[in-house]
């Protein structure tokens, strides 16, 4: 019959609303930062600053627990094990449970939205079918059953349920591959944290943080030479100026140690500590590179849990083999020392990561990175207050000022460049959307003309049974 032949054309003239956006536009929408009010924006900027200050206290707290307690020094591996044990339930409480709740609410909201879109689409199809039937039958409302078939709904996900499931062997291989990748990346993070703790045991906390400040520059170099990405602007002048500033700091420490006669400010242990801090920084750069390479295989939560599991499964037997089975220091800690230990495991090691992640998702990584210099400020202040390690040489302060100023200017420049690129990309996306809208309007006009022409060919009581009207006979 003539009516059944024209059904595909009628369906083609009414595409589903979800197909209006291109793939590029959908990806840009997902990557875009959320719209925030001034109060919320200022809140998350403050949270980014506090998170950076919080992480700057990590070498201060670990050095205090290893060198300044009222009893024998805490072994480094045992300290790393206890910090991870404390951080384990904190990760469940402050990260995993909220993540599961947010995922459940998001899934529920998506299902409700899909149901609403399905209802809207079906209503539109009914209206279209009624209009077609009314026009074809000169007022007799006859709806073709195929147009009301819910199986033709593009939003219906019943077809997805019928997709073939991978064999058990393939699923096991995929799961093992994900676990292996997460374990490797998590193991690098665990080794980075361990070398950082060892460095804080041997060198002053603010010297360890000084080396750690080179992290963004090392990551940029790794992206340039390993991942073959474009080099950030002013990278090499910034690197040279930062090295000069760090050298000035070390010269100031050496002058201070000679003036006071104390070897703690600059000694062989200090050199070993700086070497370990450099190793920790290189491991951090390797971690960020692997994050980019493996982003399609593992999630951030999988890496976070792999880090905790590797740290416990690796550091616990190593501590027993290297440092022995004497854990009596756990029972000798004072309430203040327990407070510092819990603060390190919960506030820095767990909440610090959560705050960095949350603020980055809301205000962007370039802006969060601008405040990285706050870590060095926090390490200096924490060393003065908690450890009584006061830099007295003016040369040291000049070096600190040079490093903080140069890195802050470099990261601020990267934030400005990123914001400029984002504005250009947004303008290009708007232009593409406008062009696509014009094309859609032209296509819709053509489809409407074709639809009107198709109505003439529909069999109805007004025709002679051959698909042509009687007056044209």
Automatic annotation (TrEMBL):
Alphabetic keyword roster: Membrane, Transmembrane, Transmembrane helix
Entry coiled-coil feature ranges: none
Transmembrane segment boundaries: 39-57, 77-97, 178-198, 204-223, 235-255, 270-290, 310-332, 338-356, 368-388, 394-413
Keyword Plastid: no
Top-level taxon of origin: Eukaryota
Keyword Signal among record annotations: no
Protein name: EamA domain-containing protein
């Amino acid at each position: 019959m003539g009516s059944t032949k024209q059904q595909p054309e009628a369906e083609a003239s009414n595409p589903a609303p979800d197909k209006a956006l291109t793939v590029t536009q959908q990806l840009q929408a997902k990557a875009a930062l959320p719209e925030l009010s001034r109060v919320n924006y200022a809140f998350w900027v403050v949270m980014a600053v506090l998170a950076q200050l919080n992480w700057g206290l990590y070498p201060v707290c670990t050095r205090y627990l290893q060198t300044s307690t009222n009893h024998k020094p805490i072994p480094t591996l045992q300290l790393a094990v206890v910090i991870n044990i404390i951080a384990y339930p904190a990760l469940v409480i402050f990260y995993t449970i909220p993540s599961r709740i947010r995922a459940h609410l998001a899934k529920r909201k998506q299902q409700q939205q899909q149901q609403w879109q399905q209802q809207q689409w079906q209503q539109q199809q009914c209206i279209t079918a009624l209009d077609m039937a009314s026009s074809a039958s000169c007022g007799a409302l006859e709806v073709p059953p195929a147009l009301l078939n819910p199986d033709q709904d593009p939003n219906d996900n019943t077809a997805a349920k019928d997709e073939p499931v991978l064999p058990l062997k393939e699923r096991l291989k995929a799961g093992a591959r994900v676990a292996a990748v997460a374990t490797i990346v998590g193991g690098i993070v665990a080794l980075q944290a361990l070398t950082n703790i060892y460095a804080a045991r041997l060198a002053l906390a603010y010297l360890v943080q000084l080396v750690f400040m080179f992290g963004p520059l090392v990551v940029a170099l790794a992206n340039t030479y390993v991942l073959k990405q474009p080099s950030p602007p002013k990278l090499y002048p910034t690197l040279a100026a930062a090295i000069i500033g760090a050298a000035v700091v070390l010269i100031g420490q050496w002058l201070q140690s000679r003036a006071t006669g104390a070897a703690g400010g600059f000694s062989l242990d200090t050199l070993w500590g700086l070497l370990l801090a450099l190793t920790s920084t290189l491991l951090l750069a390797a971690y960020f590179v692997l994050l980019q390479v493996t982003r399609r295989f593992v999630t951030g939560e999988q890496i976070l849990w792999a880090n905790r599991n590797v740290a416990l499964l690796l550091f616990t037997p190593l501590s027993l083999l290297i440092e022995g089975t004497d854990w009596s220091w756990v029972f000798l800690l004072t309430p203040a020392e327990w407070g510092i230990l819990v603060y390190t495991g919960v506030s820095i090691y767990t909440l610090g990561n959560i705050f960095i992640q949350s603020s980055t998702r809301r205000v962007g990584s370039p802006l969060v990175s601008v405040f990285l210099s706050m870590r060095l400020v926090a390490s200096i202040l924490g060393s003065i207050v908690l450890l009584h390690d006061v830099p007295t040489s003016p040369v040291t302060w000049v070096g600190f000022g040079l490093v903080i100023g140069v890195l802050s200017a470099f990261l601020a420049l990267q934030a400005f460049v990123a914001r400029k690129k984002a504005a250009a990309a947004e303008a290009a996306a708007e232009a593409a959307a406008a062009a696509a809208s014009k094309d859609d309007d032209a296509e819709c006009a053509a489809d409407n003309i074709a639809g009107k022409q198709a109505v003439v060919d529909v069999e109805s009581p007004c025709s002679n049974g051959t698909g042509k009207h009687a007056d044209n006979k």
